[in-house]
Structure formats: structure tokens, C-alpha cells
Fold this sequence. Notes:
Blueprint: E1 2-6, H1 11-22, E2 26-31, H2 38-50, E3 62-64, E4 71-75, H3 82-91, E5 95-98, H4 106-110, H5 112-132, E6 137-143, H6 156-175, E7 179-184, E8 187-188, H7 197-207, E9 211-214, E10 220-221, E11 224-225, H8 226-237, E12 245-248, E13 254-255, H9 256-267, E14 273-276, H10 291-297, H11 305-320
Parallel strand pairs: 1-2, 1-5, 2-4, 5-6, 6-7, 7-12, 8-11, 9-14
Antiparallel strand pairs: 3-4, 10-13
Amino acid sequence: xxxxxxxAAGFIGYxxxxxxxxxxxxxxxxxxxxxxxxxxxxxxNRRMRDLGLPDYPxxxxxxxxxxxxxxxxxxxxxxxxxxxxxxxGLFKPDIIIHLTGTVGIQDSFNHTNFYVQNNVCGFIQVLxxxxxxxHVRLFYASSSSVHGxxxxxxxxxxxxxxxxxxLAHVYSNSFDLSITGLRFFTVYxxxxxxxxxxxxxxxxxxxxxxxxxxxxxxNKRSFTYIDDVVKSVSLLLEKDKLLPIYEIGNVEQNSVSxxxxxILNTIDKEPNVEVVxxxxxxxxxxxxxxxxxxxxxxxxxxxxxxYGIEETVKWYKEAFAQ
Length: 322
């Protein structure tokens, strides 16, 4: 199986690239490698090294992993797409997993144009490639943020993801394409994003600075461990006939307070917490409906937060708290 993964240097993309390459699949990993924050760059470097790839590969040049002989990496921008399209044409993927995009709810209020350009316009480029190559199966990243309030997104980020789902529906039905959306729910784990709550809270404890807890920690989420995401996506790729959308999230719902308390139980250090109000764009609760996922692959994410947090803290300590 030949699999192209965009956003392959990101959190989920890295784990999927490693998983499929370790299975012996030919994997073309694509990413623009544009990480701004210091912590994001540090995690990016660790991901690349773990994949046997250079920290900062040259733009539009192909690199072969020193650890996985069937893993190839290209630094390229999906939005401009010219070189990515050329790479697709040479690689000839059977499957594209499109994960490239700008993430985060709060920043989307300040940089809406940037989110639309990266998420919507970039996705259109991939859809156009699949339109010209209808044998390619496309999987793309959506988000629990599409649900918003009463089914309506309440952040620009959520709107871009909902737009991607609408575009996928149009292209799939108009051109008879195989397109499957993956709605991810609050994914966490080793090598995770530095802007996500798990990493930020763990770091605040070890480095002893204040951490803001919104809405008194009452918000509820389907906290989903990364291994569950990898297994779900891997099983979906084995199926021929799929639904347009699958929700990939933990079947158990936990409050933010419960999640943070479990981190404290694992680290056993006193935090410096500031309780603040509700953030714009934050929904009170999310809960994945995994019935379609379970019906089609016989599996649903169920890793308890106790295990997931223990593994995440262990990774953080090895990577940052030496």
C-alpha cells in the first residue's frame, strides 16, 4: 500500500507515518515544517529524529528515513501545491491522508484569513488532485469543533472544518470519489502539540508557573489517546466501503478538572492554578458518537485517561524534565 500523508510532521501525522512505515508500507510524508513556538520546534525536532529524518530538511527535496527504508519525506506547502502535486504524481499514492492545516480555536479569531487559506484552500488542492485521479482514496482530518453549539460551529476554526466536510460531500458525490472525514476529539499523548492542555499543564507544573483553568474545569471532553487514533485509522484503511464521516474519540467523557487531577496524581507536585472564565469559541462538552466506527471496524477508542496520562507524563519527563 502506498500512502501519502500531509501534515506528517504534526502530532497525529507523525504517529501515523511511523505506524504505516513500520508495517512496511511505502509512505510519502509531506509537511511545510513551519512551527513557530519554541516548544513546538523542540517537539517537531524530536518527531523528525524518531522517524530517522533531518531536523530541518531543505524545501522541495526528497529525504529517505534512516530508520524506515520505505518512509520518504518532502518539505512542501500543500496550499501552493505545485511541488506537492508533482510529488503525488511521482509517488502515485493509493491513499492520501490529509492532515495539513492550521489548528487551535482561540487563534482562529485573530487569524481567520490564515485558517481559511490553510484549511479550506489547501483542502481544495487535494480534492482537485483526487478529482483528476479518482482511484485514490482520500482521508482527511476534521474536528469535534464542527459540532459547536446545537450543531453550529462557534469558532472560525470550526467553520473551516465544517466547510471541509461540505466540500468533501460535494466532490465525493459529483465525481464519484472515495472520501472519508475523520472527526478527531481532543487527542493527546506522547509527542503531542505544545498548545494543547495536556502539554501546557504538565509543563507548568515542572517549570512552576501559573496555569489558567477555564470555567473552573467544568467543561467536558472525549479525551482520546493517540494510540486509539492510530488503530482506528489503520482499521479504516483496511475497509473498502466507508461512510463519509467517522467520529474518532473516547467513548468515556471526562471533565477538564478530572483530567488535570489525574495529571497531578501522576506527577505528585503542587500546581499554580488560576481559575478564569469561559473562552470564546469553547463548547461546554464534546462526546464522540462512535457507533458508526464500531459497526464498521469493530473497534472504538476506550483508553482510560489514567493510562494515557501516565504515558504522556513519562514521555514529557524523558524529553523535557531531565
